[in-house]
Amino acid sequence: MTKYLVNLSAAPLGHEVPALLAKFGAWVAEQDHGTLGAFDGLVAEPIPTEWSPTKAERLRREGFTFLGLPDGSLVALIRPGAMTRSAVALLGSEGEARTVANSLEEFLSLWAQGETGLDELDAADTSGRKALVAWLKQHKLKVPKGEDFDFATWLEGDAPLATGAEAAPRFTPTEVLARLGPKTQRLAAVLGRRADAPEVVAYVTEVLGKKVPRSTSENTDSVNVSAPKQGVELVFSHDVLNDAFPPQPKTAKTFIPYVSTAWVRAAVGEPLLGVPWKATSEEEVARVLGPPTGRRAAFATEDALTVAFWTWALDTAGHLELELEFDDGITVTLSVRSARALERYPDITTGLFVGYAATRGLLVPERFPAHQELLSAVARREVQGSRFVKQALPRGLWDDHLRDAPGLRSLAYRWFHNMKGLWLTEDLKAVFGSRRGAFGHDEPVLDDDTWDAVDKAAPVLDQRLGAWLGSVPR
C-alpha cells in the first residue's frame, strides 16, 4: 500500500525540526496511507503568506507548518520568543486560528486518543491509533506541564485589549435543579458561565480531564469539548443570541466564550429526572414526566411535528433551560436559551423588512427597551427601518424579535434562509428586479428602504405573512 510522504530533513530558514517530530516522521513514513487519518504526509514548509498577508512576517518568524489537511487547512508549530517549547496551532482554510495542543508531545498524545479536534486526524482507524499509542509508549513520551497557549489571541499581536467586558449574569436556580443527579447538577452549575470562571475551569479540568478553550474568534465562534467517558459534551461560544449574554471581548477580534450548551448522555451514569436512558417510546417517558411540553419537526425543512420534548427552566429568569427530547431515543440538552438568527449581517433589505414589520405590528416592543420610542417612530413611518436596524440591532435580526405567534418565527426562519421554497431575497427580486451583487450573487435592485419601497414590496410581504396580519391594525 501507499505510504505517507514525509520530508522533515530541514526546517524553513530560521527554524529547526524538533527531534521528536523527526523521530515521529520517520515512523509515519512506514505507515500505510490513511491509517493515521486523512492527510498526505508530514512536510516542513514556511507558513504561506497568503494565509494572512498582514500577519505573515510574524507567523513565518515564529513558526512553520508540518501537516496539511485535505480542505487546505494547515497545522503548524508556533514558538514565540517567550515560550520554552513550540505549541501546535491550526491555520484553518477559512481563516480559523486556534491552539490544537500546548506542545508537540500533547499533540501526539491527543492524536493517539482521537481528540485533536481535527476531524481528519480523529477519524483515523482504530489500528492506526493503537499503533501510535504503542509508539508513544515505546518512546516513553510524557506531556509537559505548562501554561496554555492561546494562538488566536497571540495572533492579534500588539492589538490593544478590548474594554467593557461584562460579567455573566447571576442565576437563581429553580426547584428542578435539586431534582437532578449530582453529576448533572454540577454540570448545570457551569452553564452560562464564562470560560475563565473558576468553577468552569475546575469542572472541565478536574471532572472532565480536558482543557478549557481560552478564546473564540470571529472565524471560530464556538469550540466543543467532548468527554465521552463522562457522558458530557460542552459547547463554548461567544455568539449567544440572548441579550443577557453579550460578547465578551478579549482583544479586538477574540472573545472569552460562555458555556452555551451541554449534551448529557447515558455514560454520565445517572438517570435524568427518573427517566431511564434505555426508554424505547414516548409513552415510557411520559409515564415518568407527564405529557410533553410540545412537539417539533425533526428538521427545519419538515412540517410534521413528530418529536416530543419536555423543557424546564433552570433559573428563575428563564435564561437557562433543560430539555429532554424523544425521537427514537433520548436526547438531553442543557443550554442558554437563545434565539435563531434571521439575518446576522443586516443590509438594506433587512431595513425594508423591519420597516414593514413595524407598521404591521410584527415586532415585540419589549425586546427593545432602550429603543421603544424609535420603534414607534418607525411604525408611524417617521423613521426608516434601516435607522432602527443600525441603532437597535447591532447583532442582527433574530426570530424572537418577532411576535411569538404560532408558526410565525418558523416561517420567518425559512423565509430568510431559503428553505421550503421560501426566500425573502427572491420575493424582493421579483418586486424590484435583480442585479449582480458585490459577492457575485443576484440581489434586488434596492439602494434605499424608503417608504415608497416598503409600499411597493408590501403586497408580496402581506401574502407571505397574511396568516399573522388579521388582528393587527393597519
* Strand order across the largest sheet: 8-9-11-15-14-13-12
Q: Give a count of the beta strands, DSSP E runs of length 2 or more.
A: 19
Count of DSSP-assigned helices: 15
Class derived from helix and strand content: alpha+beta
The biggest sheet amounts to: 7 strands, antiparallel
Mean pLDDT reading: 92
How big a fraction of the residues is strand? 15-25%
Low-pLDDT sequence parts: none
User: What is the approximate shape?
Assistant: globular
**Rg calc:** 26 Å
What is the percent of helical residues? 25-40%
- Structural domains: how many: 3
Distance between the termini: 73 Å
Describe the structure.
The protein has 474 residues and is an alpha+beta fold. The chain has three domains: 5-155, no CATH class; 175-336; 341-468, no CATH class. It has helices at residues 19-28, 56-62, 104-113, 119-122, 126-138, 151-155, 182-188, 198-207, 282-289, 348-359, 372-379, 385-392, 408-416, 424-432, 451-465; strands at 5-7, 41-45, 63-68, 74-78, 87-91, 97-101, 216-217, 222-227, 232-237, 254-255, 258-264, 294-296, 307-313, 320-326, 330-336, 341-343, 397-398, 434-436, 442-444. Strands 8-9-11-15-14-13-12 form a seven-stranded antiparallel sheet, covered by helices on one side. Helix 1 links the parallel strand 1 and strand 2. Helix 10 (348-359) crosses helix 12 (385-392) and helix 10 (348-359) crosses helix 15.
